[in-house]
């Protein structure tokens, strides 16, 4: 796995050197993403091959992984997967490890995608962060907040959504936008340069919640082919 390199001139990401730093470093001063760069040993492609085609998204646990007839290199990869699940659980989180062949596509009647392939921010009603790591396949992608615009802030898009809502631009319309997650999705500017999160790196990214000291990290699931499943840990 190639080492992770920070995108040029992107001050919102900070690298850390341990899990302790990852969970204890505050997201302040405009920094909305922490990355623990790692080069992991083992054959993660073997794990994906042994899992087979499966469903669009197959959730994995330690028992499933340990039951695979893996080689020593595959066993090394399995050890990393189980260790990361344990790390996050001991921190009080509820991580999920998925083998992803494809996410469902979601297109609203207004023609605005609200699936994970669209640049978006995660959200919660209370302070929280998202942790994620891609072990195999194309990795998650991010984009600078300065090169993204909420879709609902585009006048033409807002007009289409207002027509779909069928009412006034009032509190009810705002609730409608929130209910359908339209307020969490972004379009990129023409000069935007998305960056890859890379393989093996464990990330902690800011999400949208009331009183957050930093803007949320805008990210998306990458485009992928059916023959390149992703191994993704997320919490």
Features:
alpha+beta; 235 residues; 6 helices; 12 strands; globular; 3-stranded antiparallel β-sheet
Task: Explain the overall architecture.
- The chain is of the alpha+beta class.
- The protein has one domain (about 15-105, about 120-150, about 190-235).
- Helix content is about 25%, strand content about 20%.
- The chain has 6 helices and 12 strands.
- The strands form 3 sheets. A 7-stranded mixed β-sheet has the order 1-2-10-5-12-4-3.
- β1, α1 (about 20-25) and β2 (about 35) form a beta-alpha-beta unit.
- The longest helix has 19 residues, at about 70-90.
- The protein is globular.
- The two termini are about 25 Å apart.
Q: Low-confidence spans: pLDDT under 50, at least 5 residues? A: none
Number of domains: 1
Radius of gyration: 19 Å
For the largest sheet, list the strands in their spatial order: 1-2-10-5-12-4-3
């Amino acid at each position: 796995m190639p080492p992770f390199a920070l995108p040029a001139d992107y001050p919102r990401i900070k690298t850390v050197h341990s899990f302790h730093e990852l969970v204890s470093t505050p997201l302040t001063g405009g920094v909305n993403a922490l990355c623990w760069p790692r080069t992991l040993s083992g054959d993660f492609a073997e794990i994906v091959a042994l899992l087979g085609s499966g469903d669009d998204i197959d959730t994995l646990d330690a028992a499933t992984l340990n039951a695979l007839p893996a080689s020593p290199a595959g066993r090394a990869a399995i050890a990393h997967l189980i260790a990361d699940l344990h790390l996050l659980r001991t921190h009080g989180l509820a991580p999920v490890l998925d083998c992803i062949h494809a996410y469902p596509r979601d297109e609203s009647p207004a023609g605005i995608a609200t699936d994970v392939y669209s640049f978006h921010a995660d959200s919660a009603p209370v302070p929280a962060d998202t942790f994620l790591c891609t072990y195999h396949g194309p990795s998650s992608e991010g984009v600078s907040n300065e090169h993204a615009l909420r879709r609902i802030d585009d006048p033409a898009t807002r007009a289409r959504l207002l027509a779909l809502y069928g009412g006034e631009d009032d509190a009810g319309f705002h609730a409608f936008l929130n209910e359908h997650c339209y307020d969490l999705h972004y379009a990129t500017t023409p000069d935007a340069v998305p960056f890859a999160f890379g393989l093996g790196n464990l990330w902690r990214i800011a999400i949208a919640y009331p009183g957050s000291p930093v803007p949320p990290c805008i990210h998306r699931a990458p485009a992928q082919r059916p023959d390149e499943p992703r191994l993704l840990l997320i919490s």
